[in-house]
Amino acid sequence: MIKKLSIASRADALSWYCAILLLGLILLGSIRENSAADESTIRGSQLFDRPCDEIYVVGEGETLHTISDKCGDPFIVEMNPHIHDPDDVFPGLVIKITPSNPRKFLR
């Protein structure tokens, strides 16, 4: 019986070491993932200077005026006949953007 307890205690200790090792690898992977994400983060005014795609989906709190300023397209209403009321813009609305002065992405 002494051998069985000894083997069981070794197996128990080995399982704890494996659990600790697995937890350490998960934490290490998480740290690396976060540091890689920080390098590609857009900060400050860079968000407003990035170019807009031709197809744009309106986000929460955006208006045609803010989208026009951000994307450089003063003729959004004229290019989107499905917008009947410029004040009735809602999140998820898909619009076509044709920038008159393309902006460059800052790095």
Automatic annotation (TrEMBL):
Pfam family, one: LysM
CDD domains given in the database record: LysM
Protein name: LysM domain-containing protein
Annotated ranges, domain LysM: 56-98
Species: Turnera subulata
Lineage, broadest ranks: Eukaryota, Viridiplantae, Streptophyta, Embryophyta, Tracheophyta
